[in-house]
Design brief:
The protein is of the alpha/beta class. α5 packs parallel to α7. The longest helix is centred in the middle third of the chain and has 29 residues. The chain is globular, with a radius of gyration of 17 Å. The two termini are 32 Å apart. The structure holds nicotinamide-adenine-dinucleotide. Nicotinamide-adenine-dinucleotide binds next to α2 and α8. The site of nicotinamide-adenine-dinucleotide (NAD) has 27 residues, from α2 and α8.
């Protein structure tokens, strides 16, 4: 397991026994931590990533700990691929109680120099992908009259961030989308919330120079960068039956950055 997984305490355990959780972008980083933690809480995990190979580490960690997980391949930014993978997952798991839309990409650059392709790819994966999984799983959850949807947004979507016009727009879009569908689905026992991570140590942020990381630490009141497990704990709670009176909320897990 990655160092971060060893250093953090095991986290709050909610009881998700007998439930199925679909987690996108489960191959590494925050998605991997979420998948492992939901499984630790008793859920069967259907992990999605671009390839099943990329998911092997997550699946092995879950199975070694006695949990149950299956891997599915899809590009979440591709409509036809999402429709196909949802059909595949539904055939295996007819009831799905939990959906975590975590897959995300960045293609940073200043707005004046941003190519259409960099704009479109980030919107497609981060925003359109989230919409498509919510629409497909929302239909299943409506029939069940129960569901928990957690979308991963970002403090960039709340505050903006220079160099991330495409990313911030996609994540702000996820926020508006989350609030809207929370209202649409609430009467059917489905809650929809978003978690907005601050600066979390993953592959996505490992490319940033040390100088930037040091500056971020200075700006974060708790004076450390976040770990994927900081996000996974909250996601598990929001995904649990106990969180039935929380919906349409955007909760930052950012060490106080947006306080
Ligand atoms: N790391 C941070 O500081 C941070 C901060 C705020 C928000 N987030 C958000 O958290 C989520 C996870 O980020 P992370 O830091 O773990 O990133 P990461 O790059 O380590 O992992 C991203 C995951 O998404 C998957 N993915 C990317 N594009 C995909 C596609 N087209 N189809 C299927 N899967 C795809 C990757 O395979 C990977 O599993 C993202 O939505 C990201 O925007 C991260």
């Amino acid at each position: 397991m990655a160092d971060a997984e060893k250093t953090k305490p095991e986290g709050v355990r909610v009881d998700l026994t007998g439930q199925v959780a679909l987690v996108t972008g489960a191959s590494r980083g925050i998605g991997r931590a979420i998948a492992i933690h939901l499984a630790r809480c008793g859920a069967t995990v259907a992990g999605v990533a671009r390839t099943v190979d990329a998911l092997q580490g997550t699946l092995a960690a879950i199975r070694e700990a006695g949990g149950t997980a299956e891997g599915f391949a899809a590009n979440v930014g591709d409509s036809a691929d999402v429709a196909r993978v949802v059909e595949e997952i539904e055939a295996k798991f007819p009831k799905i109680q939990i959906l975590v839309n975590n897959a995300g990409v960045t293609r940073d650059g200043l707005m004046l120099r941003m190519e259409d392709d960099a704009w479109q790819q980030v919107i497609d994966v981060n925003l359109k992908g989230t919409f498509q999984f919510c629409r497909a799983l929302g239909a299943i959850m409506m029939r069940q009259r129960y569901g928990r949807i957690v979308n991963i947004t970002s403090v960039s979507g709340l505050m903006g961030n220079p160099g991330q016009a495409n990313y911030s727009a996609s994540k702000a879009g996820v926020i508006g989308f989350t609030k809207t569908i929370a209202r649409e689905l609430a009467s059917r026992g489905i809650t929809v919330n978003a978690v907005a991570p601050g600066f979390i140590e993953t592959d996505m942020t490992s490319v940033l120079p040390d100088k930037i990381k040091a500056e971020v630490k200075e700006r974060v009141p708790v004076r450390r960068l976040g770990e994927p497990e900081d996000i996974a704990d909250l996601v598990a709670y929001l995904a649990s039956p106990s969180a039935g009176y929380i919906t349409g909320q955007i909760i930052a897990v950012d060490g106080g950055m947006t306080a």
